[in-house]
Amino acid sequence: MTPPHKPAVPGFDDGTVFRSLFAAYPDALLVVDQLGLIVLANPTALELLGYDADELVGLSVDTLVPDAIRPRHAAYRAGYADHPRTRPMGAQMELVAKRRDGSEVMVEISLSPLNGQGLPLVIAAIRSVASYPRVQQALQRARYAEHLAQFSRHAVDVTDLHLLLEQVPAIAAEALQVETAKVLLLEPSGAEFRIAAGVGLLPEEAIGDRIANEAQSPAGHVAASGQSVLVGDYADASRFTIPSHYLMAGFVCEISVPLADRGRTIGVLSVRSRTSKRFGDEEMRFLESLSSLLATVLQRTQIEEALGHAQRLESVGQLTGGIAHDFNNLLTVISGNLQVLEEAPACAGDAPSQQLIGAAMRATRRGAELTGKLLAFSRRQVLQPTIVDARALLVSLTDMLRRTLDQRIAITLVADAALCLADAGQLESALLNIAINSRDAMPHGGTLAFSCRTVSATPDDLGAEHEPQRSPSTPADYVAIAVSDSGEGMPETVQERAFEPFFTTKEAGRGTGLGLSTVYGFAKQSHGAVKLVSAPGAGTTVTLFLPRADGEDDLENDLDTGLDGHIDNDAALGATRGTVPQGLRVLLVEDDAEVRSVLHRFLLSMGCEVVACAQAEQGLVALAADGAIALLLTDIALGIGMQGTELAAKAHALRPAMAVLLMSGFSSELLDAPAEWELLPKPCTRAELERAMVRALRSLE
């Protein structure tokens, strides 16, 4: 019978079993003598500590302790030798071992003295903390966090968006240790992605390439749903269609996460691996965080670009305003002198002279219109609403477009007779902006249809956001002017931003993003609204809703106060309501001598008595000395010193019963002027000046 302490295994040898167990044990094992020298080390210990067997055996165990804590460790070892005891794993925390290359590794150590077996030795079992799953997970999270912090630092230091885009897939690939990563940006049409950046791209791919946005692809699903997709193994992904070149390249799994801008998916960040089941929730969360950071950077860049654009626009607007002021003063001199010539006895009965003067007058009006368009660029244009024959305007506009647009575009017009209250020039400009957008949406030709009808618009028709601003007592009647094209149409994501300033779907350099936003501003400023209806492949219709006019009553009710709160224009009536009283004493303040001379002539021809000054300070002196002055006519911009608005305020305080009429060649000044005073834009005709004076005098009644 075999003794119980002997296993029934043929050829069993204690020494062989010990050596096999020692070599196969999963933890690092060191056998240390009383002097602290290493007697034996198993292969796991050699691998963990980075030594060869002949290097580690005979080495002092203190060599494996970091320099900073070596004295403490020597004292602890001496105390342990005096009272050896078994110490299990986890009895002490934050132990660190020093490897041969000087690097450090966190470990747990258990000690087992062998003196009970008659051996003056201690076995140290060492386990790397990094081998624990929870520790590996924590280290992995820390590594991901460091990569995110790295990108955040780059985002602060680097202002070039293209460089930041290039870094994102590189960081993703490095952090996740995968073969390929790329950023796909959704094209404005929504039908395609563009490869904006990537690493490890296949030969079939290149930066800038377009990829179809297919709903059955992982990227297409992300774009449509706004939700991340994790495909653990393409072989099991029956709901997705995987491109064949990915499968041929050996890719078997991927993560795709959305790149969002204010809740709207604008792209996809994807990574792929040739290792099945390579990704889990931690990887997805990391990629989503990286995508969120990229989206924040994109938003910041867009805001900075928009701000820069706005600042440039403001600078151009200020420059344009200054030019417009001087240009309008020149036009005032030209047009004023032409009017004097037109009525001079030598020219009044001379037909050739009248033709020449008429041509020059028309040229000055076109110059004034050009100045108005320059001011509209900075959106500081004062509207001058009149009763507009919408059908006649559309007939003129469509005739012009037939001559100028691509001949492959057929233009149709169906218009009912309708009068609306609007600035005719700005209305034409708004319709032209819409038509140009429609032309660009039909690069191969199509149909551009204009229509005009009278409607009763309700909030349900337009939506609360676009509800026209009318007083409750005013009937909700509007003229709807629609422009429809048979072009590419807009996806919903583009429609949502179509009226945003600076938003454009056109290539760089081809669009400012101000066209439709200007149309929207014009409609709202005109107490109307604008509505856009579109769908991919079904074309686009933009409809302007403008207040309907019945005739002179509308001019009196709506225009005397001005649709924008400042300006009115009763020229559409064809006659002046009232005349300037004979002998009216007027204080004229204008710093430009030639403009002052023209206005002086106009006033004298009306039978006025004129006190003319070049500066505001001179005007105050004249006003204090002359109690008969009944009207102050002053330019707003008076050069160095007191400006016209300040002069008007002081004059009004001094003489509350005196009428005030402000004039300027720069619309911004008119917009900023107090609403209680009458305003007159330059250049102006004598009739326009007289009507403005009558209104100023009536405001005191």
Tally of alpha and pi helices: 22
Named at the architecture level, the CATH assignment of the largest domain is 2-Layer Sandwich
Give the strand content: 15-25%
Structural class: alpha+beta
CATH topology of the largest domain: Heat Shock Protein 90
| Poorly predicted parts | 463-476, 507-514, 552-577
Portion in helices:
40-55%
Domain unit count: 5
Write down the overall geometry.
Answer: elongated
The total of beta strands comes to 23
The termini sit apart by: 135 Å
CATH superfamily grouping of the largest domain: Histidine kinase-like ATPase, C-terminal domain
Mean pLDDT: 78
Q: Numbering strands along the chain, what is their spatial order in the largest sheet?
A: 8-7-6-11-10-9
How would you characterize the largest beta sheet?
A: 6 strands, antiparallel
**Gyration radius, in Å:** 42 Å
Please supply descriptive tags for the structure shown above.
22 helices, 701 residues, Beta-Lactamase, six-stranded antiparallel β-sheet, 5 domains
Explain this structure:
It is built from 22 helices and 23 strands. A 6-stranded antiparallel β-sheet has the order 8-7-6-11-10-9, sandwiched between helices. The chain has a 5-stranded antiparallel β-sheet with strand order 2-1-5-4-3. A 5-stranded mixed β-sheet has the order 13-15-16-18-17. It has 5 domains: 18-131, 2-Layer Sandwich (Beta-Lactamase), CATH 3.30.450.20; 135-305, 2-Layer Sandwich (Beta-Lactamase), CATH 3.30.450; 324-377; 386-559, 2-Layer Sandwich (Heat Shock Protein 90), CATH 3.30.565.10; 577-698, Rossmann fold. With 701 residues, the chain is α+β, with helices and mostly antiparallel strands. Helix 21 (667-672) links the parallel strand 22 and strand 23.
